[in-house]
Task: inverse folding
């Protein structure tokens, strides 16, 4: 059973556009929600993370929006760049991390 | 620090053979995790250790899989006998603190296993 559901599976965005990736969870005990970025041939690396006591966190062009009542959170990439092309994983943590299935983002120049 | 080091980076083997994947975590990290990545299932946690002790191995798919951590700087994931459905990228990750307290996972570059 997938603890964290992620969509879309793939995403193509024009340079300068906004990329949006969504995740949903059921377990209300989750208390930490990170996003990881993975480039081909590399391991995932932490991009940005949020706790459920805030509704939004922004770091540069990357923003997490968190809706506790809906049990959903999303990653927004503003002014998307070709260098952002990668696979993005959302995750939720209680005593261990549960990852979504990933979104392959392609930013077209 | 060099980061999490995994070996081999690529392994091609035939069905029935034993496969051993190796991991050196970041020095000082108390937690070590083994993940498997496939297109269909994404990142799946197989097992994790705290201070060299296995804490949760419920993700280990079958008895064919085993993992050890004989000391703080080395862990192995063994598959015996291997099967084609084991083909995947296996990641090792380490973390300095409990994952429930903003524990960032530091991943290695993975071991890509192909079982023919």
Result:
């Amino acid at each position: 059973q997938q603890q964290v559901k992620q969509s879309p599976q793939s995403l193509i965005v024009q340079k300068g556009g906004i990329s949006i990736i969504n995740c949903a969870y059921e377990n209300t005990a989750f208390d930490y929600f990170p996003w990881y970025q993975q480039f081909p041939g590399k391991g995932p690396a932490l991009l940005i993370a949020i706790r459920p006591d805030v509704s939004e966190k922004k770091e540069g062009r990357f923003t997490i929006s968190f809706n506790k009542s809906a049990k959903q959170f999303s990653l927004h990439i503003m002014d998307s760049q070709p260098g952002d092309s990668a696979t993005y994983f959302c995750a939720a943590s209680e005593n261990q991390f549960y990852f979504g299935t990933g979104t392959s983002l392609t930013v077209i120049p | 620090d060099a980061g999490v080091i995994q070996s081999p980076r690529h392994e091609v083997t035939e069905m029935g053979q034993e496969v051993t994947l190796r991991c050196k975590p970041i020095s000082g990290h108390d937690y070590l995790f083994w993940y498997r990545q496939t297109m269909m299932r994404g990142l799946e946690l197989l097992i994790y250790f705290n201070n060299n002790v296995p804490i949760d191995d419920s993700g280990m798919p079958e008895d064919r899989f085993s993992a050890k951590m004989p000391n703080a700087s080395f862990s192995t994931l063994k598959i015996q006998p291997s099967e084609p459905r084991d083909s995947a990228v296996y990641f090792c990750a380490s973390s300095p603190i409990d994952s429930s307290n903003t524990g960032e996972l530091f991943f290695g570059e993975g071991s890509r296993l192909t079982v023919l």
Observations:
- Chain A has a mean pLDDT of 94.
